[in-house]
Write a structure and sequence with these properties.
63% of the residues lie in helices and 12% in strands. The protein is mostly helical.
């Protein structure tokens, strides 16, 4: 991840509702959540949630997929890991032991895909 991409991601996450949405989608795993469910859990109007979802999608932190009549949003684990790796890239002047806990989080793999779970 380069600095420009990181700034876009941090800009998207710097708003309370969007940060809450990303955290909900991380918890929901590869199954994601429908836009209506996200709006309901975030206690935000459908038009407002649509705005926030577009911003998060533009930043690359979430993705969407149409399933029947619903649009399902999921966290982009690779992009989120990229944000963490960007922050930790030059951690502690080359002393990896200090950054090991954060590095382990950044290196963790995404949850299993829907296909892998079936």
């Amino acid at each position: 991840m380069d600095q420009r991409q990181a700034l876009i991601a941090f800009g998207a996450l710097s708003q309370e509702t969007r940060l809450h949405i990303v955290r909900m989608l991380v918890v929901s795993g590869p199954h994601g959540m429908a836009a209506g469910s996200i709006a309901e859990k975030a206690e935000v109007s459908p038009s407002n949630i649509s705005f926030h979802l577009k911003e998060l999608e533009r930043s690359g932190l979430i993705t969407q997929q149409r399933e029947s009549r619903s649009i399902i949003y999921t966290a982009n684990y690779e992009a989120l890991g990229g944000v963490i790796r960007f922050l930790m890239e030059d951690c502690c002047g080359g002393n990896p032991a200090i950054c090991a806990p954060a590095a382990a989080v950044a290196a963790c793999c995404a949850p299993a895909t829907k296909e892998e779970l079936q």
